[in-house]
Amino acid sequence: MATVMGSLASVSLFLEHNPDAAFRWWERALEAQPRLVEIRAQYATYGLIFLRRDDVRGLAEMRRAVTDDPRSAYCAFFHSLCLLTTGRTADGVAEVERAYELDPRSFLTLYGRVFVRSLAGDDDGALAAAKTAFGVIGRSEWVLTGLLRAYVQRGQRALDSSGDSAHIPADSSGDSAHIPACMHCHRNHRNPPPKPVAGPPGGRCTR
How would you classify residue 203: left for phi > 0, otherwise alpha for psi between -120 and 50, otherwise beta? Predict the structure, then answer.
């Protein structure tokens, strides 16, 4: 039943765009089964950090999930997002690498390495991670999106270093629907407001 409640939280957030209902489902699920680490990871990341912007509590909840199941690649990946979003960039990159080491054939960790490294500004790391991902899962639109972001950032830096005033729009990376919809929120965590998009598992979180 608690797992169902966690699923209903995702439906409420991503399909119905009802964060209040999502919080109720998350909290009921964790009250019923406190060791459901994947639900706690979603609650910490989507709920507390991205929606409520409660970094202190969100990181605490995320650490609890990682402590409860230190071998969970899923939790390690979400922990990396929390760390990256709250300004701990190096720790975030290290944690996504730990997620990959825990499950090197998981789509989530292969794809996640590309996005976390590109969002961290590590273009070379993102390009190398994309090459690894393509070798395991083939051509994926989601991985290609992260790869494009890295190339856009590299191009912008080249323009900046040459003194050219041209600017490549941030949205040139062509954000697409993907599992951790909070990737879309990451760019806007400190800046209002994000544009809603739709996609699995139902779109993006809105604030």
Answer: left
Sole residue written with tokens 């290290």? 94
From CA 91, how far away is CA 119, in angstroms rounded? Answer: 13
- Tell me how far apart the alpha carbons of residues 65 and 44 are, in angstroms, rounded to a whole number: 9
Q: Give φ, ψ of 59 to 5 degrees.
A: -65, -35
Distance CA 41, CA 36 (A): 9
Which DSSP symbol is given to 172? G
Contact yes or no for 14/201 (Cβ under 8 A): yes
DSSP 71: T
- Chain segment 161-178, per-residue pLDDT in tens: 777 655 555 444 443 333
This prediction's pTM = 0.78
Q: Which residues lie closer than 8 Å to 122 by C-beta, 6 or more apart?
A: 93
- Distance (Å, rounded) from C-alpha 79 to C-alpha 58? 10
In Å, how far are 20, 81, 113 from 183, measured between CA atoms?
A: 21, 8, 12
Q: How far apart are CA 90 and CA 56, in angstroms?
A: 18
Ordered alpha helix ranges (H), 33-106? 37-42, 55-68, 73-85, 89-102
Residue 190: half-sphere exposure toward Cβ, Cα within 13 Å: 5
User: Hunting for tokens 């910490």 — which residue is that?
Assistant: 44
Angstrom distance (rounded) from CA 205 to CA 36: 21
> Could you read off the pLDDT of 24-34 as tens digits, one per residue?
999 999 999 99
The structure tokens listed for 31 are: 């009250």
